[in-house]
UniProtKB/TrEMBL annotation:
The keyword Acyltransferase does not apply. Keywords: Ribonucleoprotein, Ribosomal protein. The lineage of its organism: Eukaryota, Sar, Alveolata, Ciliophora, Intramacronucleata. It comes from Strombidium inclinatum. This is 60S acidic ribosomal protein P0. GO terms for molecular function: large ribosomal subunit rRNA binding; structural constituent of ribosome. Belongs to the universal ribosomal protein uL10 family. The keyword Ribosomal protein applies. GO terms for biological process: cytoplasmic translation; ribosomal large subunit assembly.
Amino acid sequence: AAQSSVTFWLLQTSWRCKQPHACLLHQQAAETMPGASKIAQKEAYHEKVCKLLDTYDKAFIVGADNVGSMQFQQIRRALRPDAVILMGKNTMMKRSIKMYCETSGNDKWRVILDHLVNNVGIIFTNGDLNDVKEEINKYKVGAPARVNLIAPCDVHVPAGSTGMDPSQTSFFQALGIATKITKGTIEMVNDVQLVKQGERVGASQATLLSKLGIKPFKYGLEIQQVFENNTLYDPAVLDITDEDMLKSVSAGIANVAALSLATDCPTLASIPHSVINGYKNVLGLSLATDYSFPLAQKVKDILANP
């Protein structure tokens, strides 16, 4: 495939050389023609992607912003052999997935194409998704707050001694933080929310956090979407436990039973309550009259001899 692509390019360049300004066109073609090694690399990458798509049925789409190379290698080693990370240019990943779907007739992976934007990768696995997610989340590295960085979470600084000398009160004054001098150091009077999630970190905020030795942000691979059974869903779904599902089902059954009792419309959810209510009525009638039955007699005996 690489040789045919180069041959076609050379034939196209040869035709151009017969036209006016042939030398200039030939030079431009030589400069822009992709090398055989580059074409071979693309073909090897495509084969790798196709093999992964054939081998695995589940995947995570993960964001890789602010993830260092050493951290990345640690994650790769931790996930092997249960999962494999695929990184690369989004255009190359999309191209390979589209070609795979067209040639194999298997379109299940098309749903992820629209989500391959920005700095993302794909983690393929056949194992338990919760186990893989837990392993991914283990590798979060603390990072300082940089100027103009969009905060991924709220940053709170607790009250107390900062260990800074009184000459540095200007940082606190610029941020409107109440302080006092205690034993020759600056002490914050109250807990302070220094940065809000989604806001950009200012210069004074970044400097103060650095002086306090606080690394407020943790970075790692962020799971954006989960692929399973030919569909994509939010990773928060994986956090739902059996207990959560049981509570939701129980609450739904209780609502159905309450509605059925209020409207006198029997359902499987309301019949046990209807039977109990009927028994209470019969028991009340028995206690108020001479009519009795074994269970009612027990209650009458208790009432007669408390």
